[in-house]
Amino acid sequence: MTEILVQDLPGGGIATDERVIDHPAWPVLKTAVEEIRPWQSKDGSIDFGAEGAPSRAAAKATLERVVDAVQELAPLLPNNAAYHRALVADLRKWADGGFVVPDFLDSLLAFQPAGQRADGLQHLVVFPMYTQNGNPDRNLEAVVLRMVWPDWLAELERTRYDNPLFLGITFEDFTAGYDTNSAVLFPETIAVREAPERFTWGGIFCDREAARFRKVTEAAVDTLGLELPDDIRAMVSDQERCEKAFVLWDMVHDRTHSHGDLPFDPFMIKQRQPFWMYGLEELRCDLTAFKEAVKLEAEGNAHGRDVQYAVLFDRMFRFPLSGDRVRNYDGLGGQLLFAYLHKHDVVRWTDNTLKIDWDRAPQVTNQLCAEIEELYRAGIDRPKLVHWFAAYELVSTYLAPHPGSRWAKGPDALDLTLPPRKLVDDVLPDEFPLSMFFEALAKKLKDVIASTKGITAAGAA
To answer: pLDDT at residue 153 above 60?
Structure first.
């Protein structure tokens, strides 16, 4: 990644390349935040009557260390000046209010990183928040990150994949909420008194995604005896190259949620529906990124082929085996992709060796994308429940449902007098269990997958 040395910023001031995490105030800030986190309840408040709770005076003193450290670090980050002023105010408001449920709406609104997308630009972020796929509680967290916005990516976003809210980012350092499987920084995870009218940014840590992709893929390839093309083997061993693939994949994936023939908007409208609907939506976005990567490769873009194999290997090897088996929609999408490619003889498991038809893989993967797109297009004319059953039929064509499933038995097995959201209760936690292939692979890769918790680029070296 190209690092900025001196750059004029939209908000005024100069960004220098002095690393925030090398400043003596950073470990002070990090230690103070880590001291506060165990005192907090699930909603972020501090219950001073609980066992092990500090005195109010001690909590205020520790929080003031956070404030002092932020103020000491702020001159390194003039791009965050307005945010850091609001942050200090929100921290002190939280303390003065007795450490009740925190409200950091003012500082959230002041944090506008999408308006400052410069490659290598640092940000210091402190918020009470939960970390998706990490810590479910709204604890105080501190993160130092860098923007990933090389010229070639900026040009693709400007001319082809408009996504003004997207942030490609990497970790510099973080507190315990990110010593987890979380690879995103999303504003909706932050504790506020009311949600803003609209969110203005969303960040994805491409260094963590690339690092765990590399580690799991290398283990899967070795376990399955898969022969990789030379260029793809080189890609898997190259952290920086994988980060570029992931930041492009993520940018296209993210915008796809609001593009295409959409019978519903599953993530912007908080509606309750069976988890295979979310699985198909996430897979549609990934396969759209795959389809665009095929086009980019044909046009001579150096990252197009890398994105294709990042999608294939992460979806087929890591997604089905990560997380628990309770409505695991990302896992379901990975299972479906593998089963579809197997059904169409693109992947074969023969003589304890996995073989992939590299020439046909792009065509058949795009074919699955087209089937999901046709499901969506037809869904615009269907009632919700009929659409859910049509989606179930698509998935169950390639994945065997649990033998105890009521949904697999069809509409006559369900009480259709209930509203659709109530019928979601009849969906089994693991409606589409792992195949014998994936059950065996899970035993081989479980320790490797577990070892990627909290991984960064350094951990994949």
So the answer is: yes
How many Å separate Cα 231 from the centre of its chain? 26
Cα separations (Å) of 149 from 187, 303, 396? 20, 14, 40
Nearest to 249, CA basis, from 316, 321, 168, 162? 168
pLDDT in tens, 52-110: 999 999 999 999 999 999 999 999 999 999 999 999 999 999 999 999 999 999 999 99
Classify residue 45 by its DSSP letter: -
CA distance 354 to 265: 37
| Cα pseudo-dihedral 360, 361, 364, 369, rounded to 10 | -150
CB 144, CB 172: distance < 8 Å: yes
Question: What mean pLDDT, rounded, does the chain reach?
Answer: 94
DSSP alpha helices (H): ranges in 344-429? 361-379, 384-398, 420-423
Q: How far apart are CA 7 and CA 126, in angstroms?
A: 24
The model's pLDDT over 346-374, given as tens digits with 9 standing for 90+, comes to 999 999 999 999 999 999 999 999 999 99
- pTM here is 0.94
First to last CA, the chain: 16
Phi, psi of 125 (to 5 degrees): -115, 130
Contact 144, 124 (CB under 8 A): yes
Whether the CB-CB separation of 206 and 146 falls below 8 Å is answered with no
How many degrees, rounded to 5, is the angle at CA 14 between CA 8 and CA 16?
Answer: 115
E strands in 175-232? 184-185, 202-205
Residue 68's identity, in one-letter code, is D
Amino acid at 392: Y
Residue 260's alpha-carbon distances to 250, 274, 372, 377, in angstroms, are: 17, 21, 11, 9
H/E stretch holding 61 reads helix 56-73
Q: Which two tokens stand for residue 198?
A: 């609209």
Contacts of 140 (CB under 8 A, 6+ apart): 33, 36, 37, 40, 44, 66, 102, 126, 127, 128, 175
Q: DSSP secondary structure string, 98-134? A: TS-S---HHHHHH--GGGG--TT-EEEEEEEE--TTS
Lowest mean pLDDT among 17-21, 147-151, 248-252: 17-21
Give CA angle at 319 (255, 184), nearest 5°: 45
Report long-range pairs for 199-202 (Cβ below 8 Å, ≥24 apart): 199/165, 200/112, 200/114, 200/165, 201/111, 201/112, 201/113, 201/114, 201/165, 201/166, 201/167, 202/165, 202/166, 202/167, 202/254
